[in-house]
């Protein structure tokens, strides 16, 4: 097991009386993992459990042996999370301040914050917007800013919750390129099947259960068949 | 007015945020102690000179006042009616000077630096059970989300106009409140996911 191995052991979860995950057990050790499923199938709940934003009612989730229920802080340092709507993720009004937010929370030194902020903004072509208000960026730039704010915290795993849903084609391609180029393990929850065509593993959720867990071609075939009622 | 910080190398940019906040508090109090219109106009000219000297420029100073011109006009008319034009002019000059002074702070200070300074200042509130870290983050979030809330309101107003409900305040207010509450849950998740710890030292 590596420090980025994700383990779900008999995980169940409900919102009120509605079960959203039912006895999920799996180990994720691949570099690119996709999670697909219909709305309400449990995939976002599954994603939120990976960095401890949600804790299971039953069972346990661990990242490289760290239990999300017991070692929440350490898990959050290891697992970054990029949300669907970057407007809900950008906390500070100015681009460079927002990139620095997570690093300040993790007590990085001032020099380190300065260096990593510059490096990350250059990487995603945001250097020219460094001192600009974040709300004036385009949708794609905002999502890249959200990714930057997570990457500077040096996570080993990054969970993306529908990262391209709100983007036009050009920005979708930019974000897809950014995900493809990551060195870290990426778990991507998405409805965008083109985005995950070359992934290592695709998990299909249906009503809180795993419907398929395979390479993209067979898993997506099972997904499409289930959705079209074949 | 949402473009807060302007990068620069002036003495105000270099000044410590805490010192600037204290200076603003002192200057704001001082403005209320000034005796008459000539004195307040002299101070206003001095503040405008600072705008010029720091490279912010007079256009930026004007941009601080422009959004409240209507409020100025209403207040001036009320003061003229109640106490005469001289008092009205004094009142408006004092108000404008305060806004210009506050603008000098926000235009030359990064929000994150201001938040850090406020966090230190708010430590005195800790014995009252208040958490300085939470208060300062709330202030930063308020500044960040003013334009987002304005955008949401615009979207809802447009949607209601299409449905013929453009005259109804309730038809706009309720969806805006619902969306804002949903957004606040998402923001709380995002802040938590980025390692924020309100109980830090």
What does this structure look like?
The complex is a heterodimer of chains A (230) and B (201). Chain A has 230 residues and is α/β, with parallel strands linked by helices. Chain A has a domain at 6-88 and 156-228: 3-Layer(aba) Sandwich (Rossmann fold). Chain A has helices at 43-50, 72-78, 95-105, 110-123, 139-151, 169-180, 216-228, and strands at residues 6-15, 18-28, 32-37, 58-63, 66-67, 79-82, 157-161, 185-189, 201-206, 209-214. In chain A, the strands form 2 sheets. Chain A has a 6-stranded mixed sheet, with helices on both faces. A 4-stranded antiparallel sheet of chain A has the order 2-1-4-5, with helices on one face. In chain A, α3 (95-105) packs parallel to α5 (139-151) and α5 runs parallel beside α6 (169-180). The N and C termini of chain A lie far apart (38 Å). In chain A, 48% of the residues are buried. By secondary structure, chain B is mainly alpha-helical. Chain B is 76% helix and 0% strand. Chain B has 9 helices and no strands. Chain B has helices at residues 11-14, 17-33, 37-53, 57-65, 69-83, 85-108, 111-121, 132-162, 169-193. In chain B, α2 runs antiparallel to α6, α3 packs across α4 and α8 (132-162) packs across α9. The longest helix of chain B is centred in the last third of the chain and has 31 residues, at 132-162.
